[in-house]
Amino acid sequence: MVEAETEEVEEVSEEMDVTSLPGVGPATKTKLNDAGIFTILDLATAGPADIADATDVDITKAVDLNNKARKKLVEIGRLEPDFISASELLTKRKNISRLSTGSANLDELLAGGIETWAMTEFYGEFGSGKTQICHTLCAMVQLPTDQGGLDGGAVYIDTEGTFRPERLAQIAEARGMDPETVLSKVMVARAYNSAHQELIAKDLGRIIEKNKIKLVIVDSAVAHYRAEFLGRGTLAERQQRLNRFMHQLLRTAEIYNIAIILTNQVQSAPDSFFGDPTRATGGHVVAHTSTYRIYLRKAGKNRIARMIDSPYHPERDAVFMLDEKGVDDPPEEGSGSKRR
Ligand code: GTP
Ligand code: MG
Known about the structure:
By secondary structure, the protein is of the alpha/beta class. The protein folds into two domains: 74 residues, 5' to 3' exonuclease, C-terminal subdomain (DNA polymerase, domain 1, Orthogonal Bundle), CATH 1.10.150; 232 residues, 3-Layer(aba) Sandwich (Rossmann fold). It is 41% helix and 19% strand. It has 15 helices and twelve strands. Strand 9 and strand 10 form a beta hairpin. The longest helix is centred in the last third of the chain and has 22 residues. The radius of gyration is 20 Å and the shape is globular. The protein binds guanosine-5'-triphosphate and magnesium ion (MG). The site of guanosine-5'-triphosphate has 14 residues, from helix 8 and strand 10. The site of magnesium ion has 4 residues, from helix 8.
């Protein structure tokens, strides 16, 4: 489990230690360490508001610390500077890798697969295949790059208690992979509430570095927030918390060049009288922070995926199915994506 891993005290190199930043003395170091912030990477991913909340440094100093950490990461080539030329950006973007979903149709919809350095959101009604996609990706990510993988491990943040190691083993086996090895490279964290989910997200850096993680999954990203913040009066706070969580993940994706997958439900009639069954929950915060959004729906035995609001992807449907391999292409005809 992720939590157990972080209990260990690890050596932080001098270069990466928070005290290597100008203005961080022993007192600030203690405050930061008490809040679980040990390295420059931790400081840069945390975000100023989180730093101020977790320690008793004021927000101005927190902003300053976060800026300095980001600056240092730019210096050592771990992060983009604020301004770079478009040609440099093009070179940088060549580092983006793509992860196969296990279905050629779905990969095609994604213009080659799920991107690193980005957040991809799958949303749809119950049973539309979100959790199955997540399980499949946990196996796929471990494949070598020439087989569509990223040659790395996965973190699965499970907020609904639906992660099943047995199912992952089945998928691995059906794909000709060794189930034991596959299971050993997936770190699972069960998040019991939104605060716990946020805590786990803040601790991701160390787990990612230590375990060569290339994929982080949050299944589901919004469920706890929806359950905990009921009623109109709580909406602003809920959106603020979600916003912070989403940005923490986005910074993690860019600093570590990994793929992030979020799942999300749709608004449904029972909790909102005028609920639109095709609209994702989480409102603008989730919609605007996700790099790519894919809407899933059921069509008999098949599943239909559509890329929503992407300027780079054609607007069309891709058909896939769920079987022992997890995500798969339907047999022969009907397997092609149809143009709209
Ligand atoms: P919620 O989390 O409830 O919103 O749904 P979801 O979108 O996560 O759905 P999920 O991915 O759990 O999909 C459930 C569907 O996957 C089931 O209805 C089955 O059709 C399919 N499924 C789940 N497990 C298996 C399996 O072991 N084999 C096969 N063939 N299909 C499975
Ligand atoms: Mg699910």
